[in-house]
Amino acid sequence: MPHALATPPAKSPHALPSFLDPEHLGPWGIYLQQVDRVTPYLGSLSRWVETLKRPKRMLIVDVPIELDNGTMAHFEGYRVQHNTSRGPGKGGVRFHQDVTLSEVMALSAWMSVKNAAVSLPFGGAKGGIRVDPKTLSRGELERLTRRYTSEIGIIIGPNKDIPAPDVNTNEQIMAWMMDTYSMNEGATASGVVTGKPIALGGSLGRREATGRGVFTVGQEAAQHIGLDIGRAKIAVQGFGNVGGIAAKLFAQAGATLVAVQDHGGTIYQASGLDVPALLRHVSEHGSVKGFAPAETLPDDRFWGVDCDILIPAALEQQITAANAHQIQARMVIEGANGPTTPEADDILHERGILVVPDVIANAGGVTVSYFEWVQDFSSFFWSEDDINLRLVRIMREAFAAIWQVADEHRVSLRTATFIVACSRILQARELRGLYP
User: Fold this and answer.
1) pTM for this model (two decimals)
2) Which residues are marked as active site?
3) Which residues pair with 95 in a beta bridge?
4) What is the tens place of the pLDDT at every residue in 323-337?
5) Inter-residue contact 17 to 108 (CB < 8 Å)
6) What is the topology classification, in CATH, of domain 54-189?
7) Residues of the chain with CATH 3.40.50.10860
8) Does CATH place domain 207-356 in 3.40.50.720?
9) Read out DSSP for 343-410?
10) Separation between Cα atoms, residue 146 and residue 136, nearest integer Å
11) Judging by beta carbons within 10 Å of its beta carbon (0-12, 13-18, 19+), is residue 407 exposed, middle or buried?
């Protein structure tokens, strides 16, 4: 089993882009701490470590649209390419009112690590618009998406940077992005985005892929710590394509879902929630709120629920030093990106709670996105069974390699994942050299 967390070395004075406030780094600061913890294990490759601390390219764009009432509105959009040493950038686009450059930078860096951890031929990228999409009509949302795509079109492309869905974006958003890019190029470019509708070159199995990956690595980790999935109690934060699908697969394996939290509130049922019925309720009502016969709990009590496996599958920085002591689970599987702060990571480790980190746990989505990209280039599409089998094999092999590194170096699974991934990224950087 993984052991101690690595002690971070002194921080480099050159680690921060000049425009960032060193006192308020946000998610990017969390990522930098993670890189510092892995640096002692990189050997001769550590001479390149500054590469990991500086995104390759950052684009901030103004996204003006005409609203339905005839007025003009302006939104701030981002596309960050963290590293492309191993291949074109790859990462989602999120529409959320709290999107910041620091967040998008960190998410793009975690994509670099995630892609390298499962040996995909991609670098890391991410995008976003600071907007609450619930306030927009369908027409306004389409105009926003198309204008944003036009603005970032200078740096994306099937061989340059391939966006995908993320928070508050979906297959329809990807269809609009693909169409906009294709119109500007004068030719259909189905491979410019992944997560598209099946009718436009999307892949079977893509919608369920991230949740399936969470379940797959959860199974593997449970075997290593002697946890019987068939008797396990599960708590899930976020009940969309990641948390909802993971909960369904765990329930099918015999686990009991006892608690769920989403933007509408927290529900609990000690005897077990009816997962298919809850999924239907969320589809109809948009939240777990009001699901009977579950008990409603105050949101802060979610973290102290008696469970064996906790799956944070919502947004980043959810498990912090303020609530990490409350967690009763034997294992945390990070379905979301960056849900655990470094301080909370240390607390969970000290308490003997295994954390399966986001950069391996939720890599199922980008893995099937890779399959979609390959299928688009070849114009030959695989069956869903083939896709799921390939996904499970890749996830299991990646997890096994990471567990071995964790055992060898006596470090946490997060540090082990960063050792594996950062070594691959920096080896590619070193082999390619610097041009000119």
Assistant:
1) 0.92
2) 126
3) 129
4) 999 999 999 999 998
5) no
6) Rossmann fold (3.40.50)
7) 54-189
8) yes
9) HHHHHHHHTT-EEE-HHHHTTHHHHHHHHHHHHHHHT----HHHHHHHHHHHHHHHHHHHHHHHHHHT
10) 14
11) middle
